[in-house]
Structures are given as structure tokens and as C-alpha cells.
Write a structure and sequence with these properties.
This protein is mainly alpha-helical. The protein has a single domain (about 5-65), classed as lambda repressor-like DNA-binding domains (434 Repressor (Amino-terminal Domain)), CATH 1.10.260. The protein is about 55% helix and about 10% strand. It has a two-stranded antiparallel ribbon. The longest helix is centred in the C-terminal third of the chain and has 11 residues, at about 45-55. The termini are close together. This is Transcriptional regulator. InterPro entries: Cro/C1-type_HTH (IPR001387), Lambda_DNA-bd_dom_sf (IPR010982). GO terms for molecular function: DNA binding.
Length: about 70
Amino acid sequence: MPIIVNIDVMLAKRKMQSKELAEILGITQANLSILKTGKAKGIRFETLEAICKALDCQPGDIIEYISR
């Protein structure tokens, strides 16, 4: 898939664990894992907004398009 999800990169830059982000977002660690691995079919804008707020970043820092 040409869409790459970089949540792990941002978590490392912010020195935050997945568990902490999941708690802030109010989602399960399993659902966060689905987002992180790129297995999600989509993401709600409100979830993307909450991730950006928690990690103090822009949507482009989390989602990347790689052409093939």
C-alpha cells in the first residue's frame, strides 16, 4: 500500500509509549496497533486530530504517500 503510517516515528520523537497515546486518545491498544501497522481501512478526522494534538504534530508527519 502506498500510504505509510508513521505513528511509531512520532512516538519515538516524543518519547511516548503506545500505551500512553492509546489512553490519551481513549482507544484500545489493539485499535492503535491497527492504525500503526497500516491495516486500518480508514481513519476519522477527529481521531487524526486527537493524534496530532497528543503528539504535537501535523497530519503529514503521521501519514505519508509513497508512489510506486
